[in-house]
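Subject: design request, 275 residues
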């Protein structure tokens, strides 16, 4: 059906996107700050995909905090122009947000309610002191527990959450955890990462961690820094069609990596202990 014939018919479309969270104040819209949702709204307005946010019903599969990245985030909105959306949205977005795939979905589709699970990876800034103990501690998170001590629990939220899988990966110069669950609480994965770091360094025992997973603690765990966290994968049953990546996104990542390498050298040279 031609776009001109669909102008009065809203079609629900979904996009799989990624973003570099460094320059965003989180994913959720804030009127006075740069956010992922704000950039997507403006891209949709420029492409005339919708003019009213209530009519567009833009929704995300999950919220990410300031500085958190996404390799796979799912968004959905309604528009009379699904073909234009597929063609135009990637080019309307800034380089630090990119589109990976597209599909049309039922009008009732919600990327928050209708996904099966979400997977996060957290990359640690430093190698753990005791990786074997960290691996042992990670197993305690499996199954259903009370995460009151490991999250910022909003009023009315159930603190019980179920972790499907959690694995610790250690390489020569890198360590990360990968966590999969149907849903999470605010700061939950970052608090889990902080707890594993404390266990590895001997500041938190396995017994103390087990008690905290019952919801009992004198002090909540403080979350680890956001820049190591990546929303890694969204598991769903949608018939995704891949969208070719834009060269400008590859350039952004290459330039950012080169800049970090340069600054690492600068900091080593400026360090008081440099010889």
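Subject: RE: design request

Done. Sequence follows.
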């Amino acid at each position: 059906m031609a776009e001109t014939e669909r102008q009065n018919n809203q079609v629900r479309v979904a996009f799989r996107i990624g973003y570099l969270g460094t320059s965003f104040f989180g994913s959720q819209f804030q009127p006075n700050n740069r956010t992922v949702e704000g950039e997507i709204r403006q891209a949709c307005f420029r492409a005339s995909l919708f003019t009213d946010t209530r009519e567009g019903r833009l929704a995300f599969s999950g919220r990410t905090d300031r500085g958190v990245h996404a390799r796979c985030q799912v968004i959905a909105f309604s528009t009379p122009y699904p073909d234009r959306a597929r063609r135009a949205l990637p080019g309307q977005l800034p380089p630090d947000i990119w589109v990976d795939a597209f599909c049309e979905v039922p009008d009732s589709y919600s990327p928050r309610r209708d996904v099966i699970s979400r997977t996060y990876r957290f990359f640690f800034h430093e190698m753990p002191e005791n990786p074997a103990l960290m691996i042992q501690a990670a197993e305690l998170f499996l199954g259903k527990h009370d995460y009151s001590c490991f999250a910022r629990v909003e009023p009315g939220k159930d603190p019980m959450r179920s972790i499907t899988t959690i694995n610790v990966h250690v390489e020569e110069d890198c360590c990360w955890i990968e966590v999969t669950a149907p849903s999470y609480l605010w700061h939950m994965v970052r608090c889990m990462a902080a707890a594993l770091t404390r266990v590895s360094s001997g500041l938190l025992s396995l017994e103390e961690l087990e008690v905290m997973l019952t919801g009992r603690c004198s002090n909540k765990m403080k979350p680890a820094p956001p820049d190591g966290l990546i929303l890694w994968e969204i598991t769903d049953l949608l018939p995704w069609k891949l969208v070719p990546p834009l060269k400008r996104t590859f350039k952004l990542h290459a330039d950012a990596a080169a800049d970090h390498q340069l600054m690492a050298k600068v900091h080593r040279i400026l360090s008081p202990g440099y010889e």
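The first strand starts at residue 11 and ends at 19.
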